[in-house]
Amino acid sequence: MSKLLDSERLENENASEEIKTVAISEENAEKSVDVDADESINVETPVESVAESSVEQISEIEAPAEAPVPQETLPEEKPEVPDEEDQELTVEPEADEPSELNTVDLNEIEELDKSQLVEQLAEAVQQDITNAIKNKIEALKQAFYKLKKIETDEAQEAFIAEGGRAEDFKAAVDVIEERLKDLLVVFREKKATLIAKADKIKEDNLVQKKAIIEKLKNLIESKDDFYKVYNEFRKLQQHWKEIKQVPQVAVNELWKDYQHYSEKFYDLLKINNEMRDYDFKKNMELKQGLIDSVEKLDSEKDVISAFYQLQKFHQEWREIGPVAKELREDIWAKFKKASSVINKKHQDHFESLRALEQRNLEEKTAICEEMEAIDYSKLTTFKEWDEQNKRVLELQEKWKTIGFAPKKNNVKIFERFRKACDVFFQNKSTFYKGIKETMDTNLEKKKALCEQAEALKDSQDWKETSDKMIALQKEWKTVGPVSRKFSDAVWKRFISACDYFFEQKGVHFSSQKSEEVENLKKKKEIIKTINEIDLDLSANDAVSQIRELMSEWNKIGFVPFREKDKIYKEYRAAVDKHFDRLKIDESERRLQSFKSNLNDISSGEKSKNKLLSEREKLMRTYERLKNDIQTYENNIGFLSISSKGGGGLVKEMNRKIDSLKEELNLIVKKIEVIDENFEK
Question: Which residue segment(s) compose the domain that 362 sits in?
Answer without folding.
Answer: 353-434
